[in-house]
Each structure stands twice: as structure tokens, then as C-alpha cells.
TrEMBL record:
Keyword Transmembrane: yes
Cell compartment(s), UniProt: Membrane
Protein name, entry field: Dual oxidase maturation factor 1
GO biological process assignments: protein transport
UniProt lineage: Eukaryota, Metazoa, Chordata, Craniata, Vertebrata
Any single Pfam family the record assigns to this protein: DuoxA
Gene Ontology CC: one annotated term: endoplasmic reticulum membrane
Membrane topology: Multi-pass membrane protein
Keywords: Glycoprotein, Membrane, Transmembrane, Transmembrane helix
Amino acid sequence: MLPVSWLSFAKREKLTLTERASRRGHSRTSRAHSGNKGATQYLLRPFWLLRVLSSLFIGAVILAVNFTSDWETGLVNVNTTYKSFSNIVMNVDIGLRVGLKGLNITLTGNPINQMNETINYNEKFDWILGKHFDEDYLEALKRGLPNPILYVAEKFTYGSPCAVQSQFRISAYYASTMMWLAFTTWIISNVLFCMPNILYGAYLILVTASCMLLSLVSFSAVREAPMCTIAFGSSILKTTFGGSFYLTLVTGTVCFLIGLMVIFLERTRPKIIGRLFNLDEAEVDDDHEDVYREVINHLEDCSSPTIPLQLML
């Protein structure tokens, strides 16, 4: 056994070496932090501007597409009769715009002023809860709207053999539900991005993207069902996906890429992503905790009687 004085001397020397190594490590870490901070400092303001604008854009799109009427659009130019009990044929553009809350039927004359009348109609028919589509159709009959508008609207009535209304209404209902769920997860993701662990925010933005893409799947599923032909003589009114559909697709893809990018940077470059999200203080606390654990481990090693022999050798 070595004398107690040798053991205490070895412990003091061990602790001194540990402190010196810790200081050198801190100096290297601080220099590295300062270098990385200088390299990323100029990115902070553009990043914050991009972050705010992209978040506002995503939220605005999710809200707006719930109330737009161009998820599916169609337009056809035909020569058709204008009103009942009349043989007068006019050249008009008939448009159909389908949204999540209902549809719009447009009728525009070529030219607009014909037969001492302005032919420029835009009629909305809703199928939201609490308001039946057939009520709007009966109101259009009472108002004496032009024949082309009534003909297209009749295809979407509840008693029509086409059964188009139920297909669109159900698919639009589930699509709207997924969009509102996406709006909820978008709000939560913005809150979580302000927390020390930004991974939860990245996971929620991925959920937001998934909800938006699922809404597209729900709405597009109606196209797989057999559709009734809307024909005006030899001309057929065909519909395709509209601006709101593709805007939702682009926004959902952007959300998906943002979530993957944040997760990738957090796994590979945690310090850089921490500074971009203003998490420097949390990183410093983690560094201090690691140094504290290292010192504790060295002190525990110093309590062993074999350490002084190794130091003497």
C-alpha cells in the first residue's frame, strides 16, 4: 500500500490534469463555435424571413383551398338554346367549377350582349351540411335561369340517375376534413418549432403534409367512379383537376420536404440547425452537462488505488 500522502498528491495531480484538459477542450469548442457562428450568422435573417413566409404561405393555402371552387374545372364552347320554349340558338361558354363546399356553373355569351340581354352568369350550388343541393336547384328553377345552367345542375341533383352529387359530396367531405386536420397539425408544428427539441415540429409538419396528400387522394377517388356525360349536342363538358388541387399538391410536397430536411440536419448538423432555430443556449447547457459528467467520471476513477501507480509509471 502507498502512503496516504502519495494518494492525495496523485489525486490532486489527476484533478489538475483533468481541469487542464477540460479547459483546453472548452477553448477548442469555443473557437469552433465562434467559427461556425460566424459562418452561419449571415444566414439567420434570411432564414427567419423564409421560415415566417413559408409558414404563412402553408397556413394560407390550407385555409383558402377549403373555400375555393376550382378543385376540378371544365369549360366547353357550344351552340345551344338559351331559354325554354325558344328555338333561338346562341354561342356560349359553359363552365363547371367543383370545390369542397359545392360547385359553380358559369354561362358566358359570345359576345356577352346578345338579344338585348347580358349573358354572364355565375351560379353557386352548395352541398355543405345543413343546406341541400336540391334546394338551390329549385330556387334556380323559380328564378328562370337559362337552360344550360339548369341542365348541368340537374346532373348533380339527388334524384338524378347519374348519382354524381353523392360521389362528389362524400369525397369532398373527407377531403375537407383532412384539410382541417392539416391546419390543426400546422398550428401545433409552429409551436413545437419554438421548443428546444425541434424534431417534434418536423414530425408534425410531416403529418401536415400527409393530411394534405390524403385529402387529394380522397377528392381524386371520385374520378375512378363512372361519370355521367354532360353533353350539348356533339360537345361534351369534361373536367380536369384545377388550380386548388395542384396548389394543395405543391404545398403538401413542400411540407414533406421541409420535415425531411429538418430531420436530416438535426441528425447530421445539430449545431447548425440549433443556431438557425435560435437554440444556442440549449446547446451550451448540453455542453456544460457533458463536461460535468466527464469531471465526475474522472473523480470516480481517482478513488481507485490503482490510479496513482499508473500516474507514477
